[in-house]
Specification:
This protein is mainly beta. Strands 2, 4, 5, 6, 9, 10 and 11 form a seven-stranded mixed beta sheet that branches. It has one helix at 54-57; strands spanning 4-7, 10-13, 18-24, 33-39, 46-52, 61-63, 71-75, 79-84, 93-100, 113-114, 118-123.
Length: 124
């Protein structure tokens, strides 16, 4: 059983920064991909950022167009991070960490392990 626990969410003004962390119960490098997703109220969940492990894809990253240049995903042995800069009100959502044993791409997954989420609220 894999456990993923997100932290680092909170409330911030537009233009501010937050760093989300996802603590995994297993070595994150053993997964093919790790990703961050978000779901805003009344909207479908969307992929935000994903990373291939070095073992499976050389650490390559993918980002949704809406966050390119502002968000950065990274990982170490047991944690995946999402650095979020220049935050906008439209970034407000519940953010979820996910792990994939067999992903096709870091954003598409499929992902088979999910955390409980951490709320990010950006005010204008």
């Amino acid at each position: 059983q894999v456990q993923l626990v997100e932290s680092g969410g909170g409330s911030v003004q537009a233009g501010g920064s937050l760093r989300l962390s996802c603590a995994a119960s297993r070595d994150t490098y053993n997964f093919a991909c790790m990703g961050w997703f978000r779901q805003a109220s009344g909207k479908e969940r969307e992929g935000v950022a994903g990373i291939y492990s070095f073992r499976h894809g050389g650490g390559a990253t993918s980002y949704a167009d809406s966050v390119k240049g502002r968000f950065t995903i990274s990982q170490d042995k047991n944690t995946v991070y999402l650095q979020m800069n220049s935050l906008k009100p439209e970034d407000t959502a519940m953010y979820y960490c996910a792990a994939s044993s067999h992903c096709s791409t870091p954003l598409n997954g499929p992902y088979n392990y999910w955390g409980q989420g951490t709320q990010v609220t950006v005010s204008s």
